[in-house]
Specification:
With 294 residues, the protein is of the alpha/beta class. The chain folds into two domains: 79 residues, no CATH class; 205 residues, Uracil-DNA glycosylase-like domain (Uracil-DNA Glycosylase, subunit E), CATH 3.40.470. A six-stranded mixed β-sheet has the order 4-6-5-8-10-9, with helices on both faces. A two-stranded antiparallel sheet has the order 1-2. Strands 3-7 form a two-stranded antiparallel sheet. Helix 3 runs antiparallel to helix 7. It is elongated, with a radius of gyration of 24 Å. The N and C termini lie far apart (67 Å). The structure holds uracil (URA). Uracil (URA) binds next to helix 6.
């Protein structure tokens, strides 16, 4: 029996055969698939089977003199599904193909709530450490590079205390476009759940390519997106989480540290998270480093 879900599966298998590795479903497609799942839960059959159509009256046709051969048409794309195809053979080429997909990423662009400029990632794609932030702001949009404004300067200091430069780690954002506001000047806003969901396949593809030994989720937006958790940063920090087998440490966003510049206790919490990351990466830690912000 040709079930509606088969059309979706045919399409996804065909895309997979063409090299697609990630897929975005818009809310309607998501709801549609859920409905199909309900429909087919009963052993793959609709609950009340439709009556068999009456057999058509027998007719004979004359065979054409030569069979006409046509290539099988690719299955049509079901509405609301966007696939991401990674191309290239080297890591750099593959990442460039994700960057290219991000530029024209329809699930994000079609929302109409994100700005035009796409800001991808920076740093070393072979690094064992990946840091994921929220979304570009005014400064990042201008320079087309994540974390170059005041929060980025704070992040640079944290990395320096760990013994890294920003060129030695891979830094990206969950959302690749600056969230738009009315009469926007330099003000920024956090991304909405729809904006996060729309961009998720992009960061997932980056993580699959980079395969870092450890991910730091900077702030609640990154943590919510990567871990699909509604818990606060305070609840999530202090232990290891998992993203497809990769350990994730959640910490406060650098801009939160900027807002609590004189709060040494918060700085110490962030630093303890980074010490845990350094231990996980088996990096040397001096006694002086262990005592920072105590
Ligand atoms: N905040 C983020 O989360 N990301 C940036 O790139 C800049 C500020």
């Amino acid at each position: 029996m040709n079930r509606p879900v088969d059309a979706v599966l045919d399409y996804l298998r065909a895309q997979q055969g063409r090299g697609s590795t990630h897929v975005h479903l818009d809310p309607e497609a998501r709801a549609g698939l859920r409905a199909l799942q309900e429909l087919t839960r009963n052993g793959g059959r609709p609950q009340a089977p439709a009556p068999e159509p009456a057999a058509p009256p027998e007719r004979t046709f004359e065979a054409p003199s030569a069979p006409v051969r046509t290539a099988p048409a690719p299955p049509p794309r079901p509405a609301g599904i966007t696939t991401l195809t990674i191309t290239g053979s080297t890591l750099e080429e593959k990442l460039a193909s994700v960057r290219h997909a991000a530029e024209n990423w329809a699930p994000a662009r079609s929302l109409g709530t994100l700005r035009e400029t796409m800001v991808f990632a920076t740093g070393d794609p072979t690094s064992r450490l990946m840091l994921v932030g929220e979304a570009p702001g005014h400064d990042e949009e201008r320079k087309r590079e994540p974390f170059v404004g005041p929060a980025g300067q704070k992040l640079d200091l944290i990395l320096k205390a760990m013994g890294f430069t920003r060129q030695q780690v891979y830094i990206s954002n969950i959302v690749k476009f600056r969230p738009a506001t009315a009469r926007q000047a330099t003000n920024n806003r956090p991304p909405t759940p729809d904006e996060i969901t729309a961009c998720l396949p992009l960061i997932e593809a980056e993580i699959d390519l980079i395969k870092p030994a450890c991910i730091v989720a900077l702030g609640g937006t990154a943590a919510t997106g990567l871990l699909a958790s509604a818990q606060s940063v305070t609840a999530l920090r202090g232990s290891w989480h998992d993203f497809r087998g990769i350990p994730v440490r959640v910490t406060y966003h650098p801009s939160y540290l900027l807002r609590s510049e004189h709060d040494v206790a918060t700085k110490r919490k962030v630093w303890e998270d980074m010490l845990a990351v350094m231990e996980r990466l088996e990096l040397p830690i001096s006694e002086k480093q262990r005592r920072f912000f105590q």
